[in-house]
Amino acid sequence: MTTLMQFKDVDVHYGPIQALKKVSLTIDEGEIVTLIGANGAGKSTLLMSIFGQPRISSGEIIYRGEDISQKSAHYVASNGLAQSPEGRRIFPSMSVEENLLMGTIPIGMEHAEKDMQRMFEMFPRLLERRNQRASTMSGGEQQMLAIARALMSRPKLLLLDEPSLGLAPIIVKQIFQILKDVASTGMTIFLVEQNANHALKLANRGYVMVNGEIKLTGTGAELLVNPEVREAYLGGH
């Protein structure tokens, strides 16, 4: 397998506070890799460090053979990395269609119409809401929009930060089915999630982060039956 991204001994500080400690993990092409951990463990910090917010203190973030840890967010986004951020961060006053077009900024409008039709096929609900203001949609619909907007930049690696956060269980199931469908197209996915059960069932491989450090790693199936993981994240059963 070809390694698409690699974190090598990554440290991150917020002032005197160390948020990430010697974090190393790899994401291979075509894989779904998940990073699970409690709220405040450092998962989102790791994801945002890819875009330099925050900058890492030491270590390397290697993407397609290049250290991108000191590159600009625009450089990173225009080289095949797209994020669906925590809290969705859609543009509330814009329509669904306008939000999708914002996803093309890193690559330009050349494929916009074709890709938008593809998003409407993948997310039929967005087609129904095409001209609706994004702020008037449900949380689940807004999450679909955030994922679709990220896909509009034709990423080589899709980064997802807590896509199930704040959603009803039935909607969470729908979102994870959508991610499964996206992965079936060959998309490489790095998924940061608190919902360990759904994330590990979906993922090829997983990492467990505790207080800014990677404590466990294995296949999704291995981690699902790991006693420590079950006790800490799956309610012990």
From TrEMBL:
<protein>
    <recommendedName>
        <fullName>High-affinity branched-chain amino acid transport ATP-binding protein</fullName>
    </recommendedName>
</protein>
<dbReference type="InterPro" id="IPR027417">
    <property type="entry name" value="P-loop_NTPase"/>
</dbReference>
<comment type="similarity">
    <text>Belongs to the ABC transporter superfamily.</text>
</comment>
<keyword id="KW-0813">Transport</keyword>
<feature type="domain" description="ABC transporter">
    <location>
        <begin position="5"/>
        <end position="236"/>
    </location>
</feature>
<dbReference type="InterPro" id="IPR052156">
    <property type="entry name" value="BCAA_Transport_ATP-bd_LivF"/>
</dbReference>
<dbReference type="Pfam" id="PF00005">
    <property type="entry name" value="ABC_tran"/>
</dbReference>
<dbReference type="InterPro" id="IPR017871">
    <property type="entry name" value="ABC_transporter-like_CS"/>
</dbReference>
<dbReference type="InterPro" id="IPR030660">
    <property type="entry name" value="ABC_branched_ATPase_LivF/BraG"/>
</dbReference>
<keyword id="KW-0067">ATP-binding</keyword>
<dbReference type="GO" id="GO:0005524">
    <property type="term" value="F:ATP binding"/>
</dbReference>
<keyword id="KW-0029">Amino-acid transport</keyword>
<dbReference type="InterPro" id="IPR003439">
    <property type="entry name" value="ABC_transporter-like_ATP-bd"/>
</dbReference>
<dbReference type="InterPro" id="IPR003593">
    <property type="entry name" value="AAA+_ATPase"/>
</dbReference>
<keyword id="KW-0547">Nucleotide-binding</keyword>
